[in-house]
Amino acid sequence: MTSATDLFRELTGSEPLGVWSAPGRVNLIGEHTDYNGGFVFPFAIEHRTSVALGLRDDGRIRVVSTFDPVPVEVALADLDALFPARRDEIVEWARYPLGVAWALLRDRVLLKDADGGTGVTGVDLAFASDVPVGAGLSSSAAIEGATASALDEIWNLGNDRVSLARAGRLAENEAVGAPTGIMDQMASMLGRADAGIFLDCRSLEAQVVELGFAPAGLELLVMDTGVKHAHSTGGYGERRASCEKGAALMGVPALRDLSVDDLARAEELMDDVTFRRVRHVVTEDQRVLDAVATLRSEGPRAIGPLLDASHASMRDDFEISVPELDLAVDTARAAGAVGARMTGGGFGGAAIALVDQGLVASVALAVERAFADAGFAPPHIFGVRPADGARRDA
Question: Is 124 a catalytic residue?
Answer without folding.
Answer: no
